[in-house]
Amino acid sequence: MKVESAKKNGAAHSEPAIENAVLDRYRKGAQQKAESLCCPVSYEARFLQVIPDEILEKDYGCGDPSRFVKSGDTVLDLGSGGGKIAYIAAQLVGAQGHVIGVDFNPAMLALARKYKQQIAASIGFDVVDFRRGKIQDLSLDLDLLDRELALHPVRSADDFQWLSETCERLRRAQPLIPSESVDIVLSNCVLNLVNDADKRQLLSEIFRVAKVGGRIAISDIVSDEPAPEELKRDSELWSGCISGAFEEEAFLRAFEDAGFHGIELAKRDEKPWRVVNGIEFRAVTVTAYKGKQGPCFERNQAVIYKGPFKQVMDDDGHVLKRGVREAVCDKTFKLYSREPYASHFYHVEPNNEVPLSDAMPFDCKRSKRRDPRETKGREYTLTTEESSCCGPDGCE
């Protein structure tokens, strides 16, 4: 199929045109099932039993990011739509967790909120909260803004200035999602619906709201080649998760540029969902973590990369060679002791711990190899009798 978008739509794509097309298509999708909105996904049946059919049949996703949710998490579901992922996540986080769904579309929010008490009664606790906002602006609570506008309608240029000041006040004083408040950010096929000009801000907002040590699980549609302008001018293709898709390499790079680390392509569909003018569009799921920022201190720690590759490079440019005792700062040592790295390394602690309060800045120009005497101690002269080489799993 060849798409003649320029003839169909004429003018170049604009933010209001895209936003209106997305709002209208998903408003209709909330009222009547739309077969062409994103691709079919299988979810664990046990989590679907408490979710009404009206939500299930009007769910438009391309993956299942909920499988990365843990008990007790505070979860943010971007573009939560009818609430399916949010209600699955609620069952995973349990009574001690919290799930926040954010969506811009009033019709989808109404559908999600319609069954909130019914589902809470079925699972035995109420931990889900749906809020109205744009996923590229997670500071502005649009429900709060609507209340302000009801008291002070905008009718003049002076009112417009008041509106701008009010938005900033609400962002500061009553943010929709506070900074560093979320354990995991989920998204299911909505990042591609955001205008290209807002995508950098979108990733920045995702990074802002995640806790230090928090993580993300993002399912979306990506393309194997950049989408040309003729596709981007087609509002139907944009609202259908096509024209606004990230190119697949750029998708991963966007999370890296935003400051995330441990970025992994956790799932990539072998077959494309759609092919348009020779460009393949397929579903992927990406996971990543927040927390590599901060000062570096020398505490005489080392890591040994297990393999199987001869060497690897991390998101900070550290090259780690297989089997080599690599000198790392305290921050990196801690990062490598947690997921997704922990299983790939042996962690070498010094015999004499250096208190963080006494630690000097780590010299990034020093030799990458950690001399064993740096961890054992220069005066280490211990001699021992032979000992058992048995490990926790017994002797071979």
Describe this structure in words.
The structure is a single chain. The protein is α/β, with parallel strands linked by helices. The chain has two domains: 5-139 and 175-289, Vaccinia Virus protein VP39 (Rossmann fold); 297-376, Ribosomal Protein L9, domain 1 (3-Layer(aba) Sandwich). Helices cover 32% and strands 21% of the residues. It contains 15 helices and 16 strands. It has helices spanning 5-9, 15-31, 45-48, 53-56, 84-93, 106-114, 116-123, 142-151, 157-173, 199-209, 229-232, 235-239, 248-258, 330-336, 372-376; strands spanning 74-78, 98-103, 128-132, 182-188, 210-223, 246-247, 261-268, 274-276, 279-289, 297-298, 301-305, 311-313, 319-321, 325-328, 345-348, 360-361. The strands form four sheets. Strands 1, 2, 3, 4, 5, 6, 7, 8 and 9 form a nine-stranded mixed sheet that branches. Helix 2 packs parallel to helix 6 and helix 8 packs antiparallel against helix 9 (157-173). The longest helix has 17 residues, at 15-31. The radius of gyration is 25 Å and the shape is globular. It starts with a helix and ends in a 20-residue tail after the last helix. Mean pLDDT is 88; it is low at 1-12.
